[in-house]
């Protein structure tokens, strides 16, 4: 299964790179976020971090790489993710290969019981005023359920974007539907992410702006709350 996923991602890269007559339709993205804390789906994964993004888009297809490295603590999470996605209208589907530097600090280790890769499928739909997304791990270093078996850990999320007070806002609620050790050892259905985020573009010059963002994230399941801040650097 893992080898098939890797092959599909390699084929995707080749598809983006080879057709000379399609190059005019390919767009690229490069950026980096600097954040005071790395909070993912309500889980605390580290302190001050740099999070670069590199991506390509061709028509309805996209391929992107995203990373995280802690700047304040050498023990912070190091991460490298590759996502392939397809969008048609307001519907999208994709596969992500997450890699973390724990428990195995080797990127090319894909053994079933000896890997830090997690493979996740996702599907979602944008209804305009809100969007819904579902994510499920299907291979790799997944969590376990109450019976000690692979949990096929899942996460569902709703997002509501809106504008208020000259800022662009996004409200999020996310939940784990059933028991898994992957999401803060959830023992069953658990709301793990209640967030409110605001973004504002700061104009530096006529041709250059820096988006800054701040937000509050609470995890009712773990009784934790975080105040977040960051900014994005991009051409």
Gap between N and C termini: 37 Å
Succession of helices and strands: HEEEEEEEEEEEEEEEE
Give the count of structural domains: 1
Strand content: over 45%
Name of the CATH superfamily: monomeric porin ompg
- Count of separate DSSP helical elements: 1
Poorly predicted tracts of residues: none
Widest sheet, order of strands: 1-4-5-6-7-10-11-12-13-14-15-16
**Percent in helix:** under 10%
Structural class: mainly beta
- Assembly classification: single chain
Structure summary, number of beta strands:
16
Radius of gyration, in angstroms, nearest whole number: 18 Å
At CATH level 2, the architecture is Beta Barrel
The biggest beta sheet, please?
12 strands, antiparallel, barrel
At the first level of CATH, the class is Mainly Beta
Keywords: Signal
Describe the structure.
Keywords: Signal. Residues 1-22 form the signal peptide. The protein has 235 residues and is mostly beta strands. The chain has one domain (2-22, 30-233): Porin, CATH 2.40.160.40. It is built from one helix and 16 strands. It has one helix at residues 2-17; strands spanning 26-35, 38-40, 43-46, 49-58, 61-70, 79-88, 91-100, 110-111, 114-115, 117-126, 131-140, 154-164, 167-176, 190-205, 208-219, 224-233. Strands 1-4-5-6-7-10-11-12-13-14-15-16 form a twelve-stranded antiparallel beta barrel. Strands 2-3 form a two-stranded antiparallel sheet. Strands 8-9 form a two-stranded antiparallel sheet. The chain is globular and about 60 Å long. The N and C termini lie far apart (37 Å). The mean pLDDT is 90.
């Amino acid at each position: 299964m893992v080898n098939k996923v890797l092959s599909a991602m390699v084929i995707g890269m080749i598809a983006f790179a080879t057709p000379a007559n399609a190059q005019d339709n390919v767009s690229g993205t490069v950026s980096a976020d600097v954040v005071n804390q790395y909070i993912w789906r309500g889980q605390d994964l580290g302190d001050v971090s740099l999070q670069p993004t590199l991506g390509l888009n061709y028509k309805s297809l996209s391929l992107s790489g995203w990373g995280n490295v802690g700047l304040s603590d050498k023990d912070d999470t190091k991460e490298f993710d590759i996502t392939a996605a397809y969008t048609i209208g307001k519907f999208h589907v994709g596969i992500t290969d997450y890699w973390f530097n724990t428990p195995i600090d080797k990127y090319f280790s894909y053994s079933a019981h000896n890997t830090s890769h997690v493979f996740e499928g996702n599907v979602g739909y944008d209804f305009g005023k809100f969007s819904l997304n579902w994510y499920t791990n299907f291979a790799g270093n997944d969590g376990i359920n109450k019976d000690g078996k692979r949990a096929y850990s899942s996460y569902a999320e709703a997002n509501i974007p809106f504008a208020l007070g000259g800022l662009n806002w996004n409200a999020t609620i996310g939940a784990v539907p059933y028991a898994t050790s992957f999401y803060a050892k959830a023992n069953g259905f658990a709301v793990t992410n209640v967030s409110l985020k605001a973004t504002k573009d700061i104009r530096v010059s006529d041709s250059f702006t820096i988006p800054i963002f701040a937000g509050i994230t609470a995890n009712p399941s773990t009784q934790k709350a975080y105040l977040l801040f960051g900014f994005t650097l991009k051409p």
